[in-house]
Design goal:
Shape: globular
Strand order of the largest sheet: 3-2-1-4-5-6-7-8
CATH class of the largest domain: Alpha Beta
Number of domains: 2
Largest sheet: 8 strands, mixed
Strand content: 5-15%
Number of helices: 12
Bound molecules: 1,4-dihydronicotinamide adenine dinucleotide, ligand L7SNNMKT
CATH architecture of the largest domain: 3-Layer(aba) Sandwich
Number of strands: 8
CATH superfamily of the largest domain: NAD(P)-binding Rossmann-like Domain
Distance between the termini: 34 Å
Helix content: 40-55%
Radius of gyration: 22 Å
Length: 311
């Protein structure tokens, strides 16, 4: 029997995490103070699991996942003998602080207390807890049962073993944990998303493009490549000579664009050398043509898959 998992908050992300962990075979205790959210959670989980099954993405019947779910309005019931708590309550420090204080009292001392927070580091609400060493952020992309990356964000006081344990639990449940090295607001996922959103809002404000057209540029352009390769690999493969050549050619233009928005973070030669060094360790330049051809074959498969009518 796999360890029980507690999920606190039965909204969009809480129910999505309930799918992740019931699908992985864990008993899941889902807590919410709102009776209506509690009442609708099993049906929502069953409906999403049925969609997963129809897409060929679920190896069990949806009923099997619901059978592992216990929904409760009693936090102490949810917290009993769990290995991991995922807090999915509203994005408010006061609510998270109150919950972490209660969970620190109610859970076994070795249970990991993880917040799904979009931007609030654990040091904003766990610093004063006796059990703070087991507290951290585990920030998913929505929905986590389809988007595998999850950011494990330790606070300065988090025990590295607790972060390791959290990564192991999420990885065993089929997710792709990355360790964020420093506590910053918004971590990596939402800082990158925020950078794009800030520019997109400016482009709409200044009458440069419509909301729909900006979404098209990302969906039918940047996003197609980014669903296969990340932003650094994208420009590395776009430019003969790799990312160092890209920085030389495009760096001044990107610096001017940043200055327009009041941002002055130059791509210094040391920074470019660091980025280029990491890229060359992943892809020696003598393999550049081979990888470019791979990229195009992967894009061809993506284009072909998108042409297939949905089941
Ligand atoms: N929706 C998204 O795309 C993502 C959200 N998150 C984060 O996950 C957390 C939850 O977000 P959503 O699921 O979107 O919110 P939501 O509004 O869908 O659900 C929040 C749930 O928390 C419950 N709740 C309210 N007070 C509570 C309390 N004191 N204790 C326990 N539960 C309480 C509500 O009844 C509701 O069911 C937030 O911190 C959010 O920033 C993280 C990644 C993606
Ligand atoms: O975009 C996502 O899935 C996450 O990074 C989020 O944190 C939320 O969408 C956030 O931006 C709004 O709740």
């Amino acid at each position: 029997m796999l360890e029980p998992i507690a999920i606190v908050g039965a909204g969009s992300i809480g129910v999505a995490f309930a799918i992740v962990f019931t699908r992985a075979g864990h008993p899941v205790r889902l807590y919410d103070p709102d009776a209506q959210m509690r009442a609708q959670a099993p049906d929502t989980l069953h409906a999403r699991a049925s969609d997963l099954a129809a897409a060929g993405l679920l190896e069990e019947k949806p009923d099997a996942l619901v059978a592992r779910l216990l929904v409760t309005g009693d936090l102490s019931v949810a917290a009993q003998d769990v290995a991991l708590v995922i807090e999915c309550a509203p994005e408010r420090v006061d609510i998270k602080q109150a919950l972490f204080t209660e969970l620190d009292r109610l859970t076994p001392p070795d249970a990991i207390l993880a917040s799904a927070s979009s931007a609030l580091p654990a040091s904003r609400y766990a610093t004063d807890l006796p059990g703070r060493a087991r507290c951290l952020v585990a920030h998913p992309g929505n929905p986590p049962y389809l988007i595998p990356v999850i950011e494990i964000v330790p606070a300065p006081f988090t025990d590295p073993a607790a972060a390791d344990r959290a990564q192991a639990l999420f990885a065993a449940a089929g997710m792709l944990p990355i360790r964020v090295g420093k506590e910053v607001e918004g971590f990596v996922f939402n800082r990158l998303q925020g950078a794009i959103l800030r520019e997109a809002y400016c482009l709409v404000r200044d009458g440069v493009a419509s909301v729909a057209d900006i979404d098209t540029v990302v969906r039918e352009g940047l996003g197609m490549r980014w669903s296969l390769i990340g932003p650094f690999e994208t420009v590395d493969l776009n430019t003969r000579g790799g990312i160092a050549s890209h920085a030389q050619k495009m760096g001044p233009a990107y610096e001017r664009m940043g200055a327009e928005r009041g941002q002055h973070d130059p791509w210094t030669s040391d920074l470019v050398a660091k980025v280029d060094g990491e890229r060359r360790a992943q892809l020696p330049l003598d393999q550049w043509e081979v990888r470019v051809a791979w990229r195009d074959r992967a894009l061809m498969q993506l284009v072909a898959a998108r042409r297939k009518p949905p089941a």
